[in-house]
Every structure is written in structure tokens, then in C-alpha cells.
Input
Amino acid sequence: MKTLFNIAVLASGTGTTLQALIDNQALHGYHVALVVANRPCTALERAQAAAIPTLQSKDWEAIDQALTDNHVQLIVLAGFLAILPEWICQKWAQRIINIHPSLLPKHGGKGMYGIHVQEAVLAAGDTEAGCTVHYVSAEVDGGNIIAQATVEVLPDDTPETLSQRVQAEEKKLLPRIIGELSINL
Output
């Protein structure tokens, strides 16, 4: 039997993407070994309900130690609203990925998260939106792109309706990509 690939999920919010990762781990051959949050949030409650070890901390030394202690092979940012220190990006280079709710390089960078991204997509008059899984580097949303999924921008879209469709694609794309990466790491 194949040994499961250990991931840590870093989250700051409701944890809906985390839940998709939990629900799809057996299908895609990975194991959520740790959930880290930088503030109290529902994601921690979801992890605890699934009997996954958790850590709430802003101390990167403690976070790094927990990653090592839990034999993490890949760090997944899923709605994590904090900038990673450069030394973490270097130490874990090519082993940290992020899901971003735009078709990077469009609508990325500082301040581009959540509903703000879809507001920018609509303001720009884009005809398609989507999400991007990318490697994390010291530059915000600047790492190499791994995969993208697109959705059409509809004439009557609001930031909320567009965000719902993009999030649905995120929840399919991210677990699949983690499974594909597990073969190579």
C-alpha cells in the first residue's frame, strides 16, 4: 500500500477549501497532517472535527518546527492571509503552493484576495476569471504557475456570484494538483 503524502494546510478563514482538501485526501493520495492558522478561525474547528492536529501561531519558528514534527512534505496555503517570511520560502522552496482566485499574473499581489479579486476582474471588463495554483516565492503571488482553471464572466455577474463559481473550481483543482505533485516530491 502506498504511503500517504503529508501536507500542512495554512488557513485564516472559514476553511471551505480546507474542507475540500480533507474530503478528497483519500481520492488523491495525500494526508492532511497539520492545519496552521495565524488567528482564531473556523478552519481550526474544521480540522479539530476531523481529528487533524492544529496550531494557531504567528511565530514562524514554531510553525516551522510543527511542520517538521508532523513530517510535512508540502505546505498548502488555502486562504492564508499572511505573507510568509523569505527564509520560510527559501527553506521550503518548491514545497509551498498557494491557490489564488484569479488567473495570475492578472489580479495578484498585495491586497488581492477574496472578493477584492472578483471586483477587480469585473472592473477590468475581463471575459473570463478563474483560479491559479502556483508555487510560493518571496514575491506575493509571484511563484511559478502550476495549473489554472477558468470560468466565463457572465453579463449579470456580481463579485459574489463570480466568486462562488471560482471557488467551486478551486475546490476541484487544488486537491487534484496536490495528488499530482505527490508523485514528484
